[in-house]
Amino acid sequence: MAKNDDPVDDIAISDEPVVEEGREQSMKDIDLDALLEKHSQDEEVKEEFEKVEDKVEEEVKDEAKEDETKKEEEEIEGYYADEAIEEEEQPDLPDGSKPKTPQEELAAYVYDGLQPITVVGTSGGKNVRITVKVAEELPDDFEFNSVKDQASFNQSLAAQAISARNLADGYLNTQQQQEAQAYSAKERRDIASDIAKLQRAGVLQTFTPGMSVDEDPRAETAREVLKFYEEEKARRLETANANQRLYYPLSYEDAYYLWKSRNNQTGEKQKAEDKERKEIASRQPKPSRGADASESKKGVGLPSTAGWDQVINEALKIY
Fold this sequence. Notes:
The chain has helices at 23-29, 32-75, 102-113, 147-200, 220-242, 252-264, 267-283, 308-316; strands at residues 117-123, 126-132, 143-144. The chain is mainly alpha-helical.
């Protein structure tokens, strides 16, 4: 039999899989359970990573939305608090004239309200009929025709004095109401001025045009400070009355910094201090006599009620 020169015939053919040297041993060493567990852990890590990624993406969207909202708010040109307050018109006085004092205003009001008294007698050697409101308006040489006429005139003067006191009381009540209104109006202007000052300093936000301050989100801090201002003002007045001390008001600007300072304190510490102050104030005796601190809010320059008779007599010369 001839020898086959084809080199392929010399290679032994086997049905066993061909494995590289050293490869079979390493495959046997692999722990399939550990491999599956690692794969499971990788899936959990992947899920956690996807959650974090989603969260970061959501935060980025929120920040972008917040920046957009902030940008829109900045684009809205706000206004300062004092720009909404109208200037109070002052009455025009004639050239060279001076405003009347409170006593002069009172005397003029009372005199204008008195009813005239008609008297008959003689003056300058002639019979005269004169209309007066006070005795000092009679001529120096005036003489009554009879004692009866003089007694009637004196009775009319006594009734005139009662009318004058009633007019003065009405003037006082009206004046106090007007001054209370003027005080409130000035207080509002002062508050607006302080808010505008804080707004221009960048401490408070400007207000949104066309929106009520009660509803404007930009005015939230300003509203909180205003509430604190009213409460602190009432507390100071109550303390002044309880201790018979002068009432010292505060400005809105002072109230803001006091409000900010108290808000920065520890909550429990502040509560304890407030409780202690209230307990001390509650133990103080109420004043039975002496001037009430609220008297300082009465008409400046006006005499007290107890001095009305004297003022009326001096102003109108009624004896």
